Amino acid sequence: MTVISKIWYFVTGRIGQFRRLRRALEGVSDVVWVDCPSLGEFEEARPVIMRMRAIDPKLRFLVTFYSPSGYRNASGDPAADWVFRTPIDTLCNAKRFLDIVRPVKAIIAVDEYWLNLLHELRRRNIDTYLISARFVPGMRYFKKPGFLYRDMFRRCFSRIYLKDAKSLKLLEGIGVANAEVAGDPRMDRMKALVDEDWRDEVVEKWLRGGKAFIAGSTHREDDPLVAALAEVCPEGKFIIVPHEVDDCRISRLRSGLRCSSALYSSFGEGDEEARVLIVDTVGKLSRIYRYGFAAYVGGAIGGNPHNVIEPASYGCPVTFGPNIGKYCHCGNLVDCGAGRVVRTPAELLSWYRELAGSAEALRKASEAAVTYCAGGLGAAARIADGILKG
Question: Could you point out which of 51, 209, 234, 284 has its C-alpha 20 to 30 Å from the C-alpha of 116?
């Protein structure tokens, strides 16, 4: 999706939303509002929602997204009773939104801080929880101009559930006492997907019983690395799952490849011989990683890394660009031997050959990935139980 189309959907999607929201929630009670910036944050909130549903079936869940992509891709997900767009954060909108929804609790996923909405939740004495959060030194919250946010953390959240102990120490340093370390609920979400009995006929027909190197959530900045790797490794097969799958993006990706490729959406006779399979549909990546022996996760060259826990949960050693910032899993996977930072095609090729050329090296890295992910299980239960006890 282009920038122009994203802006178009952002604006037009909110026209008439309060009317639609009022119609959807008329006569409904026990609503829990869950706000997510985009789809990745929803994946972190999802296992918490499902745990809360299992414990208290009368609860209904309204999930809102700031981004158009999150809204489109989560619509129809069984975790959400309703999916809407996050209202623009004005005081008028905050009051109108909460008058309609009347939530019994509010959950903010990861890092979505709308000050008017948060202060209005506090004024109405609605328990509000921040989940799956992580902080690193240098964030604006820990600098002098960030006093509004420091006050927000102390007063607007009933409880803050953090991913790691370093985040807790930082919050305690600015006087935030209502926080605890709970871990990352994505670990629980991925464990459920790994255990799921799921197969893909197209991928299996193309692979013929083998394994592929998978490049997931790739951006334009990632393409040269992946294309160079596929070009110089004729013995391998490669699955590329771009972050955006519009026609222009797919056409540009294919034109940059110097080896044969096939599209998932139009896979047919003769495509089994293609060296690269481009998955040009949305929503399959978290399950397709099961067909990989190693993975490259995009985003961390020109921006932020996407979900590295998805491939690691299947035992795929994972590599990514250098801009890992506050994303703790990247550094932790590197430390335990299951991850690698790469900056150039030569570095990616070296890592690929290290794993593809040694069954023992691949086994150790794969076991390290699985062990790391298994050590993080249980976060969803800790968070959901804490919210329900309130």
Answer: 51
